[in-house]
Amino acid sequence: MTDHATQALAAALLPLVGGRENVTSVAHCMTRLRLGLADRTRVDEEALRALPGVLGVVDDDTYQIVLGPGTVARVTPEFEALLTPDRATELAARGAELRQEQRERNATPVKLALRRVANIFVPLIPALIGCGVLAGVNGLLVNAGVLPGVTPALASISSGFMALIAVFVGHNTAKEFGGTPVLGGAVAAIVVFPGVAKVTAFGVTLAPGQGGVLGALAAALLATYVEKLCREIVPPTLDVLLTPTLTVLIGGLTTLYGLMYAAGAVSTAIGTAANWLLATTGAFAGLLLGGLFLPLVMLGLHQALIPIHATLIDEQGSTALLPILAMAGAGQVGAALAIYIRLRHDTSIRTTIKSALPAGLLGVGEPLIYGVSLPLGRPFLTACVGGAAGGAFLGVFAMLGDTVGATAIGPSGWALFPLLSGERGLAATAAIYAGGLLTGYAAGFVTTYVFGIRGGRGGQTTS
């Protein structure tokens, strides 16, 4: 998208969400422009959905406009620029109040926990993707025996972030829970510091990285609570000296002599359980995971899987769960194609599918979920059948020892190919993953074509 097109899209969005005075906050994630709105009744949702470049909308704790990866990062600053500086400052304060009020009304312990997990790990996804792609390219070069002078540099670039991911997790954890981010990062850094190999407790010597991202999260969370306690009891005149010192000391000692051991055991257990699950019940596990992922996305519960993916990547170098879960998107694509063919006289739904399908093929499923299958009812269920079939396909190969993994989280669909990892090499792994996608497409298409739509030409779907 050109700069002119980006500016034009931002300018077109503003009046459709009620104008400057209706916007209280602006943010974005990987695919969505997230707006705080003073009055949501002023949104022209029908016009928003029809606007070229808009892949869908989601009305949640914030009003979310799905623009797709890359596009949203360029449109957001252009949209913010349309708010005058004074007005933006005023609205940001009011937006924080409105968001807090709405979160208090809608919050449940589960939703709050998942939102916080997302706030910690989602900002790390761009680096995970970039480093994961470079690691894949480096692996290809090493296997091919070409550019030997370049591969060490690529290995350093792609591995640096993962070696220090604990620091970033600690920083974001402290920030999310109201502590000083750099103190959270400082305590979490202990987890990956090479010097911990000299520390022995309970007759066991620590290993650098033991506990991984879970240990870093726990360490930073503890540090945050220690810091808050110190702020309450330390005299103001000594606060600047004692609070950070006590936070790092208490948090660090507890991390070394407790949290790293406990988190290491949990991380190992997660890896062992995932391997056992796929090796012994791969087809069944794949069927369940692929079939249930779309409902999890719809409910926002998929965010609970982010630390599990991160732990598997940290422990084993890849997550075998992500490619299976990506099959849910394949089932969604197959269902959308069936609807497009069957409802050939429904111009509106076919236009929506045409605009959302490219994003769906690249693993951005929200436009098809919220714009097509979920509103129509049955196609959402038949899309889940497609995801289950694709997941079972990958599960069968996992039982045979050909597990498909992903070296980073974030992308799915076709966008996951550069991040694939497997024991038999990229070509064989990519072929298995492609087979899963084709299975998901086919199963989603057939079940939707046969069971998801009532009536013949121009027929209607049933809920």
Features:
single chain; 3 domains; 67% helix; alpha+beta; 463 residues; two-stranded antiparallel ribbon; four-stranded antiparallel β-sheet; Gyrase A, domain 2; disordered C terminus
What does this structure look like?
By secondary structure, the chain is of the alpha+beta class. It has 3 domains: 3-107, 2-Layer Sandwich (Gyrase A, domain 2); 123-270, no CATH class; 318-452, no CATH class. Helices cover 67% and strands 6% of the residues. The protein has helices at residues 3-16, 45-50, 71-81, 85-106, 109-121, 125-144, 151-163, 165-176, 181-188, 212-233, 236-299, 306-316, 321-325, 327-342, 347-361, 366-376, 378-399, 426-452, and strands at residues 23-28, 32-37, 56-59, 63-66, 200-201, 204-205, 405-406, 420-421. The strands form 3 sheets. It has a 4-stranded antiparallel β-sheet. A two-stranded antiparallel sheet has the order 5-6. The chain has a two-stranded antiparallel sheet with strand order 7-8. A hairpin with a 3-residue loop joins strand 1 and strand 2 (32-37). Helix 6 (125-144) packs antiparallel against helix 7.
Summarize the structure.
It is built from 18 helices and eight strands.
The tally of beta strands, per DSSP, is 8
* Percentage of β-strand residues: 5-15%
Overall body shape: globular
**What's the N-to-C terminus distance?**
37 Å
The portion of residues assigned to helices is 55-70%
The average pLDDT value, as a whole number, equals 88
Oligomer: single chain
CA-based gyration radius? 24 Å
List the secondary-structure elements in sequence, H or E: HEEHEEHHHHHHHEEHHHHHHHHEEH
Biggest beta sheet summary: 4 strands, antiparallel
